[in-house]
Amino acid sequence: MKYFFTKSGIKKIEELLSVKTLYAFDYDGTLAPIVNKPDMAEMNAKCESLLKKFNEAEQIAIISGRSVEDLKKKIAFRPKYLVGNHGIEYKKFKNKYSFVKKEVTKWKKDILNLIKNDTGLRGIKVEDKIYSLTLHYRGYKNKKNSLLKEVNKLTPAPRIVLGKSIINLIPKNAPNKGDVLLQLIQNGGFKKSLYIGDDITDEDVFSLLDDRILKIRVGKKKNSKAHFYLRQQSQVNQLLHYLTTNIGDI
């Protein structure tokens, strides 16, 4: 990965602005800073203002681990595409992957029974996002290993994605962020795409072998497949400012 704010990074952005491009963003850790309580994660006023202005001129997608309903509460305007549950919750995927909801319902039942009967796991919060589950253990970090042990016993086996004091359970055969981004590019007839993310599930985009996609990671990570990185989340505003001030000038 290279640091984005260099001549080579800016040149790549100029290439995007000269053709029909889809601009896609993760939410938590990208548009909104990571906070101790996920419910409190919000875009700051500057970021929201810049993104709203850019949305009026270009087509934007927000692809998040949150549910679409949750995203709607967080975003005052409506971008072209809102995709939730790590790429699963997209209208063209819902019917095709109806099995996902059944798997998640079963996991939820099993985990709630486990928490009820195992005093050692009391305090774990189960967030049901219909197409995936998120287990919150903030304040109970000593229970992480015990929780992971039990989660690994679930059937059918989920894809387990660790986050900051959370464990995401995602159906293994469901579409991911990379799958949905490719679908959006194809459906919209886009020549290129920008994707910015910060987490493990964003690597599903970063690892795509597709030279139409410019991949930027928030935070440098040794093994990431992203092309460029931003040093910190606040630099997303800096990038959005460049985009909004150069619309139509390239």
CATH superfamily of the largest domain: HAD superfamily/HAD-like
* Rounded mean pLDDT score: 92
Beta-strand portion reads: 15-25%
Please give the largest β-sheet.
Answer: 7 strands, parallel
Q: Can you name the CATH architecture of the largest domain?
A: 3-Layer(aba) Sandwich
Domain count = 2
Total number of helices: 9
- N/C terminus separation: 25 Å
Helix share bin = 25-40%
Radius of gyration, CA atoms, in whole angstroms: 19 Å
CATH topology annotation of the largest domain: Rossmann fold
Q: Which strand order does the major sheet show?
A: 1-11-10-9-2-3-4
Return the string of H and E elements. Answer: EHEHEHEHHEEHEEHEHEEH
Please give the CATH class of the largest domain.
Answer: Alpha Beta
Which residues form runs of ≥5 with pLDDT under 50? none
